[in-house]
């Protein structure tokens, strides 16, 4: 079986933020990811990780979050100054939190100019923080209309242009299924570039086991590939208590 992590921005949200760490640990997780840890001083999140023996797999850039704001500027022509200052701020958090990955969000854009801008900005981030691993993640256009990075072919093209060992592909079964209609085939096609994976059912982004996807087949494919990374549960639980949706984990 793959090694599973819990996304604390979507899981255990029935609890206050700092209580989600112990809930995840008690459910058997040894690692978590937090999309936007920026509402609290980094040292408080660090303390919660340490107290519960949890590794931090991933955080997102940009800060603080995108409630009412843009989902990043990395591919937005004219947004480079904002992108660089966001990355600098994320790296100050990363110094304390030590996430394995920082997911760089592309933002709203389209076309050749946006592609060139995304490539340049990713190279800049990779060279500015050579010891930090970064990821990019295609998001489906139903959930994120007008988001630049909206398919896996495009993500692979971006990575080919970026040519940096510390920038890789973030796979998400929910988005892959929504974009391409077959998350398993997408895993098989792009697994060589995937450094981090997330799981959720489609079309409603609920827990594995529901919806149109065969998660047993996906986990088997992950196991049979060379993938050594985390598989993070990033879904919206259909019951009030997240714990009651973890049947897929116990199986
Ligand atoms: O899949 C998602 O929506 C997330 O992984 C993400 O980073 C967007 O905020
Ligand atoms: Mg995701």
Automatic annotation (TrEMBL):
Q: Which UniProt keywords apply?
A: Isomerase, Pyruvate
Q: Which InterPro entries match?
A: HyI-like, Sugar_Epim/Isomerase, Xyl_isomerase-like_sf, Xyl_isomerase-like_TIM-brl
Q: Does the keyword Isomerase apply?
A: yes
Gene3D superfamilies linked:
Divalent-metal-dependent TIM barrel enzymes
Q: Does the keyword Phosphoprotein apply?
A: no
- Name the active site residues: 137, 234
**Which residue ranges does the record assign to the Xylose isomerase-like TIM barrel domain?**
21-251
- One GO BP: glyoxylate metabolic process
> What is the protein name given in its UniProt record?
Hydroxypyruvate isomerase
Species whose genome carries this gene? Ruegeria conchae
């Amino acid at each position: 079986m793959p090694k599973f992590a819990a996304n604390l921005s979507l899981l255990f949200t029935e609890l206050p933020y700092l209580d989600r760490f112990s809930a995840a640990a008690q459910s058997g997780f040894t690692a978590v990811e937090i999309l936007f840890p920026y509402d609290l001083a980094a040292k408080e999140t660090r303390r919660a990780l340490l107290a519960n023996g949890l590794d931090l797999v991933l955080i997102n850039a940009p800060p603080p979050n995108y409630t009412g704001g843009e989902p990043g500027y990395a591919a937005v022509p004219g947004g480079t100054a904002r992108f660089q200052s966001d990355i600098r701020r994320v790296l100050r958090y990363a110094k304390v939190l030590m996430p394995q990955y920082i997911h760089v969000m592309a933002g709203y854009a389209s076309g050749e100019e946006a592609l060139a801008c995304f490539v340049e900005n990713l190279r800049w981030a990779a060279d500015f923080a050579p010891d930090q691993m970064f990821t990019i993640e295609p998001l489906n256009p139903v959930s994120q209309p007008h988001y630049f990075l909206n398919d896996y072919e495009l993500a692979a093209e971006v990575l080919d242009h970026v040519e940096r060992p510390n920038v890789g592909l973030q796979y998400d079964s929910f988005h892959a299924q929504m974009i391409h209609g077959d998350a398993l085939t997408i895993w098989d096609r792009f697994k060589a570039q995937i450094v981090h994976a997330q799981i959720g059912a489609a079309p409603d982004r609920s827990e594995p086991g529901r919806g149109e996807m065969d998660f047993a087949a996906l986990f088997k494919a992950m196991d049979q590939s060379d993938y050594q990374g985390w598989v993070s549960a990033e879904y919206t639980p259909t019951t009030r208590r997240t714990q009651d949706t973890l049947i897929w984990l116990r199986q």
